[in-house]
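call fold target=Aminotransferase class V domain-containing protein
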Amino acid sequence: ANARKEFVQAIVGREELGVVICDPERLPPLEAAYVDFLRMFPRFAETLAVDDMRAREYAHLRHRVCCDYSGFGLFSHLQRVCNSPSSSFRLAYVSANLPTHALYGSSTGSSSLESHVRRKIMDHFRISDTDYCMVFTASKGSAVKLLAESYRFDLHQCLLTSYDHHSQSIEWMIGCAREKGAKVSSVRFRWPSLRICSRELRKQLVEKKVSGRRTVKGLFVFPLQSRVTGARYSYQWIPFAQENHWQVLLDASALGPRDMDALGLSVFRPDFIVSSFYKVFGADPSGFGCLFIKRSAIKCLHNTTRARSVGMVKLLSCPSSQLGEEERPEFPPGLERDALDQTKVLGMINIKNRLRYLISWLLLSLAKLRHPASSSHGFKAPLVQIYGPSGRKYDRGASMAFNLYDWDGLLFQPTLVQRLADRNSISLGLAQIKNVKFVDLVPDFQNISPRKSNAFGSSQSSSPESQQEFLVVTIALSYVSSFEDVYRVWEFVAKFLDADFVNKE
């Protein structure tokens, strides 16, 4: 409660200053900005152990800002050169039926390494193998596709998805459901906050009655957090959906390190869970996905030959490292080597606060950037349009979506922004926002509509209701992200205030 109150006071105090920056040359230097940042968020000083760890283990990131991943972070140097049980493995594909492999795969043919990683992940999610079965997959997308092929959409003929962005694996699931005769629908999100349209979702979950002998309507696919916009959604949708005879697939792949400590799966018990451990354990291949299946839900899956080739895997140990003993780096006794252990040592609360301060500062700083007023416009047009929760939101994820516009409201194409960022040693992502419902429009919507229509490459203004998908630039912070990272992003974006910047580049 105190942390939330301090956060709100810091945000209000900053907004009362009303600072606007119209010239990239007027940005404060890094050192001055950092001092001001610490004055705004003094608790950030409690997380400086992360900066020490980054300097020690992530020196290869010193000249690169990596903001194009979500969830867990990049390899540390030690993960790449040390030969430990969870940092030296390879994936081998498994050809089996999902229900059978889920029930018996962990007890037959599992390597000691796979058992070690399985126990570690189950502990991370705080769930018991007496309640859930766990299957390794090549990726999170493979986990979704595997469930899509195996789920009995022919009996439970509804699929309801809730994503504010395009997901290739979810599109695969939609295709599978339609092939099996299921009715497919999607949750919609309010513009511009991209909050769930709660009234509509409640109606979608309640409206269809269960008839005859069927006890399940279908599958409700629900992410706890948008990996694109950082919007977080209420856990209460899980029991509400189950009370209305839906099975729930929980997508936990966008959650950051140790967020599962607060998940409380003993209270919220989804029928299926998918997650990704990208670049957490080991060297190449850098990660894998997981599909958790509640044991009572296995009966809703069926054996299918198509699912055999989707992407179930097992973990096998790699040959010993090629490094000689003299080449192995020295590290302190007890130093944890993978991302789960690192974040456990650093502390969940510290990590969550650190990411909250960094993403909020970046959002507020980007909002300061405005084009100079011109004779044709009586206002200073914003350079940045944010999609999703603002920097004032305490409970949001460490990712964000945005686009950049020139002084006349014309879009800088997201692909161009990404390319120019790469030239400046900054990695940004791209995503397709979708399922947007344009309601509660702001009074100056006439200034927003053509800006948004240009996101489709159109030079003509059109009705916003017909434009429910558009490309955006994305930023996702990790627990190893630093203040210098977000400052460099701010510094790069501010360059677009210079009318000649793009031409110069």
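return ok
The CA atoms of residues 122 and 129 lie 8 Å apart. The mean pLDDT is 80.
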